[in-house]
Amino acid sequence: MISEALAVLESEEQRNELSAFYEKHKNRFLNLALNYLHNQEAAEDAVQEAFLKISNKPDTFFSLGDNRRIHYLCAVVKNVCVDMLIKRRRIQPDELSDNTVLPNDSESLESLVLDSISHKEIIEFIKSLPKLQQNVLVLTRLSKLSISETARVLNISEKAVNQRLYLARKAIKQFVEERRNRNG
């Protein structure tokens, strides 16, 4: 399953070491990916992609001890799964279109945005938010995941999701108000 990743490595020693590591821990990584993606084939793809990512930059992986390698690869698998979930929903923070309408709990905020700021301006502003806030905003508002689903996907607590969502919405409100004051 990781033949593509093994082919990228330069030395036979690294290929053997990575192959042995994969065989020893593959079920752990597959289960982790399956928890995120709920699809066996997608989970296998995620693990393969994670191993390909580490084989493209092998120095970090091979400088770690076995336990740290496990934690490192778990983080890579999780990130690949999050990326896959975002792509599956066809919404990517870096590729938000100017026509994207952002659903929101507050009608007044939506009205302010639609009345005084172009979609392009608000999308550009969202792209400037910290990545963690962007991810929560995209998953909850555009992909319509619940707070608990978002927490599971990002492997953070529901409290952390709510806090990031609050900060993102607060920043958007502040941006809207500043633009309105400047233009009005």
Which structural traits does this protein have?
184 residues; 10 helices; 0% strand
β-sheet strand percentage: under 5%
Distance between the termini: 60 Å
Shape: elongated
Structural category is: mainly alpha
Count of individual beta strands: 0
**Which sheet architecture does the biggest sheet show?**
none
> Helix tally?
10
User: Which segments are poorly predicted (pLDDT under 50) over 5 or more consecutive residues?
Assistant: 91-114
Task: Provide the helix percentage.
Answer: over 70%
The average pLDDT score comes to: 79
Order of helices and strands: HHHHHHHHHH
Radius of gyration: 20 Å
Describe the protein:
With 184 residues, the protein is mainly α. It has 10 helices and no strands. The protein has helices spanning 3-8, 12-37, 40-56, 58-62, 66-88, 107-116, 119-128, 131-142, 147-154, 158-183. Helix 2 packs across helix 5, helix 8 crosses helix 10 and helix 9 (147-154) crosses helix 10 (158-183). 25% of the residues are buried. The model is unreliable at 91-114 (pLDDT under 50).
Helices and strands, with pairings:
Layout: H1 3-8, H2 12-37, H3 40-56, H4 58-62, H5 66-88, H6 107-116, H7 119-128, H8 131-142, H9 147-154, H10 158-183
Helix pairs in contact: 2-3, 2-5, 3-5, 6-10, 8-10, 9-10
